[in-house]
Amino acid sequence: RPGRLLLLAAAAAATATVCFVPNPKATREVSDHATGFNPTVAASAALPVLTMLAEDAEAKYGDSRRWSAVLVPLTTLVLPAVTFGSFVLYSFQEDAFWRLVPGTKRGLEAEAAWREHPIFANSKDPMEGLVNPDDFEKGLEEAWEAAKPAGSTVTVQDKLKELSTQNNPHFQTWNKQLSA
User: What is the pTM of this model?
Assistant: First the structure.
């Protein structure tokens, strides 16, 4: 029979671990664990008793009405009212959505705090992460000379100097409106 064969194989595997003599270090480790209390073994011994005490799962007529009387008002009235009320109170704060709206007081404070750290001090500089900025500018000049339209007087150095000021009037007015 396959059940007896499986039982015989399990018994052989269990006795195979005891048949060999372990080294002295392993013997000390085993003896240390054998004398202590193991809560995992105690919990696994108590599980069959706990499962005998549990009731069978069955749906009773009165249970659904009782839970519906509690959960329906809770999920449709109380939780949405608390959530939306919290959102309304948060949205009327001065620094609400400070990560999304540029120029808020808290956002400017966070940006200044990041600028104080030496790693992020020059993070606004577009050439910050380049290993060799001179090589980048030389390659940019060569690419512009090859691609520029005939008769163009724009040079890479002039354009880089113009872009270094970040003169964007739309953002400048937006930033002034927020800080005022």
Answer: 0.39
pLDDT digits (tens, 9 = 90+) for 75-92: 899 999 999 999 999 999
Q: Which residue has the tokens 């329906």?
A: 72
How many residues comprise the chain?
180
Greater confidence (145 vs 33) lies with 145
